[in-house]
Amino acid sequence: EDKVVQSPLSLVVHEGDTVTLNCSYEVTNFRSLLWYKQEKKAPTFLFMLTSSGIEKKSGRLSSILDKKELFSILNITATQTGDSAIYLCSLPGGETSGSRLTFGEGTQLTVNP
Amino acid sequence: NAGVTQTPKFRVLKTGQSMTLLCAQDMNHEYMYWYRQDPGMGLRLIHYSVGEGTTAKGEVPDGYNVSRLKKQNFLLGLESAAPSQTSVYFCASSYALGRPAGTQYFGPGTRLTVL
User: Fold this and answer.
1) Beta carbons of A46 and A35 less than 8 angstroms apart
2) Which residues of chain A, if any, have pLDDT below 70?
């Protein structure tokens, strides 16, 4: 059974801090790892990672995957209050499972002014 | 292009009542999903569909039924609501594997309370 574990579950920082969110996984057939950001409503897609060691970057957010050690990290530099959200890590299953996602519990990030 | 839409946004039911949640997508996605999200539990898959006329069970299917009569719509039904079904329900859709694999687009959610 596929498994996704995120840490920490909760994090409180001040504006300007840099944070690192962790995601470790166990999956039978790795295809990709996805990061989502969830504010008050639906999750929105951030990154899809398929190859080890290649950093994906979007503004102050970046993410990297280590397929040997089975983990990914999401970095946010110079945090802002608008970064406050739940960050979800997920992995899609194989073709026979309809690409269903297995989600971690999420990391609740709170950025205080 | 509205993406993924859900109806209704909020609903309060009494125990034993039935209701249907509607999900619609206009991106021509093959796959559609229903999740529920509860505090401390993350997102859990209820049912999913890989195409029109097909459905499959997810992690927590008990107490729910689904139908995919049209490619763009995915319905989630509660035949006899229970307080344990109080949750936020999200619908999502995605292309079939390969373009790009796994990325799902979520609807805004339906907050359901069962008294």
Assistant:
1) yes
2) 93-99
